[in-house]
């Protein structure tokens, strides 16, 4: 019996039907289109069983599946080693074409290369598309073709190129929804993929505060942030729609979206930054890496309320306000002289919006070891940061219930820690 000829669109970091570049092109195929998502064991096996991000992915896929049911189709969800899943699909269907949107992280690049090899061996044509960024890979470079390593000229070039094409094209696939593969694939429960509900949830994004973003973004007690980052991370929102909207709303907010692409470009061009300092001159720094100090930082018991409130917010909710992230990261690297990789790994475990390029970029910025980083002698004073951005203590009291009952003393005096950090960096920076 002959196998059904199909086209497959492979969801990854683009969990939406709306304005999805790869899906738009897939639906123009001559074959009916199966929508596929793979829960990848290579990623899942390192996560706790109540990981909130897996729950969010499952919830987002369920919404897509509900939409597909209305047009007599469904989402094919698989779990396993990605290569083995694809080998099984190629046995089950006569796969003529495969469409997917690019992922620029090192693991994804290696994975996709392996998948494309077996697709080619099975005479399946594959197409990849730019979807999660406005400009990818080598589209924003210096005149000599080399990547930018300083943000401001990157931003200027990005804006110049974007303004020449405003608005960026958006992709409406709705006219071709009739080309979805008619199906009733069984949609697995969270438990069936080996996970369980988490008390931590991803919040809906909220863009109503963006008009005066630059005036309110540094004050954590206001709780007037967009909560957009997990949605960008997993692609439940379109970057094209967002940028086309932000361009007319707020320059500072748009700049934050450009920072996201800058760090993606750095990771793509310099993959060593996943584990190593961007600036190799900083490789000689003698970190203290005290495990007891690290545990106090993780648990939010350092004696500095701004640091502790941020860590407790992270541990309880999976979120941390951006201004506070800078304070806690600086404290770990400068006050405690614990290398940035420890903090990056902890954030990777806890953050709902964990994104490899942004996490590494921001941690190396705080540590002074990255591209366009804060200079090593810039050491945030947590007490001054608190007075500037949480003057009335509303934020810190929200997360530190015992603050007014005789709070723990700071684990290290700021002045001593600052002097020690500057001396350690100065001695360790290779000439």
TrEMBL record:
Q: What is its EC number?
A: 4.1.99.3
Q: Write down a Pfam family by its short name.
A: DNA_photolyase
Stretches assigned to the Photolyase/cryptochrome alpha/beta domain: 5-134
What is the name of the protein in this document? Cryptochrome/photolyase family protein
InterPro entries documented for this protein: Crypto/Photolyase_FAD-like_sf, Crypto/Photolyase_N_sf, Cryptochr/Photolyase_FAD-bd, Cryptochrome/DNA_photolyase_1, DNA_photolyase_1_CS_C, DNA_photolyase_N, Rossmann-like_a/b/a_fold
Q: Which family does it belong to?
A: Belongs to the DNA photolyase family.
Q: Which cofactors, if any, are listed as required?
A: (6R)-5,10-methylene-5,6,7,8-tetrahydrofolate; FAD
Q: Which residues cross the membrane?
A: none
Which top EC class is given?
lyase
UniProt cross-references to Gene3D superfamilies, sorted A to Z: 1.25.40.80, DNA Cyclobutane Dipyrimidine Photolyase, subunit A, domain 3, HUPs
Q: Which GO terms describe its molecular function?
A: deoxyribodipyrimidine photo-lyase activity
**Taxonomy, superkingdom:** Bacteria
Keywords on this record? Answer: Chromophore, FAD, Flavoprotein, Lyase
């Amino acid at each position: 019996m002959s196998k059904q000829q199909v086209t497959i669109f492979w969801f990854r970091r683009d969990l939406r039907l709306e304005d999805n570049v790869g899906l738009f092109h897939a639906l123009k195929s001559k074959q009916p289109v199966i929508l596929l998502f793979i829960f990848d064991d290579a990623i899942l096996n390192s996560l706790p069983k109540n990981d909130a991000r897996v729950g969010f992915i499952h919830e987002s896929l369920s919404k897509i599946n509900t939409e597909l049911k209305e047009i007599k189709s469904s989402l094919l969800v698989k779990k396993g080693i990605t290569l083995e899943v694809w080998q099984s699909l190629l046995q089950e269907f006569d796969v003529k074409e495969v469409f997917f949107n690019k992922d620029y992280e090192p693991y994804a690049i290696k994975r996709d290369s392996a998948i494309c090899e077996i697709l080619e061996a099975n005479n399946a044509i594959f197409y990849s598309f730019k979807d999660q960024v406005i400009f990818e890979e080598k589209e924003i470079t210096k005149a000599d073709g080399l990547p930018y390593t300083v943000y401001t000229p990157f931003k200027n070039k990005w804006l110049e190129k974007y303004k020449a094409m405003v608005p960026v094209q958006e992709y409406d696939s709705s006219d071709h929804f009739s080309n979805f593969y008619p199906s009733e694939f069984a949609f697995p429960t969270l438990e069936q993929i080996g996970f369980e509900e988490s008390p931590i949830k991803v919040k809906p994004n909220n863009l109503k505060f963006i008009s005066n973003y630059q005036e309110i973004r540094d004050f954590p007690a206001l709780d007037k942030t967009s909560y957009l980052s997990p949605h960008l991370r997993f692609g439940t929102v379109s970057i094209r729609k967002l940028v086309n909207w932000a361009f007319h709303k707020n320059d500072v907010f748009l700049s934050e979206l450009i920072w996201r692409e800058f760090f993606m470009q750095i990771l793509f061009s310099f993959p060593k930054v996943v584990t190593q300092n961007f600036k190799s001159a900083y490789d000689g720094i003698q970190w203290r890496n005290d495990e007891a100090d690290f545990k106090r930082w993780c648990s939010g018991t350092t004696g500095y309320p701004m640091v502790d409130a941020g860590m407790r917010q992270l541990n309880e909710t999976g979120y941390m306000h951006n201004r506070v992230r800078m304070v806690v990261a600086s404290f770990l690297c400068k006050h405690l002289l614990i290398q940035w990789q420890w903090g990056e790994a902890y954030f990777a475990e806890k953050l709902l919006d964990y994104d490899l390029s942004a996490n590494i970029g921001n941690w190396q910025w705080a540590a002074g070891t990255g591209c366009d980083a804060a200079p090593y002698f810039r050491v945030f004073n947590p007490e001054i940061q608190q007075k500037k951005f949480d003057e009335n203590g509303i934020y810190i009291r929200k997360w530190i219930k015992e603050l007014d009952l005789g709070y723990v003393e700071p684990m290290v005096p700021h002045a001593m820690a600052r002097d020690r950090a500057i001396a350690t960096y100065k001695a360790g920076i290779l000439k």
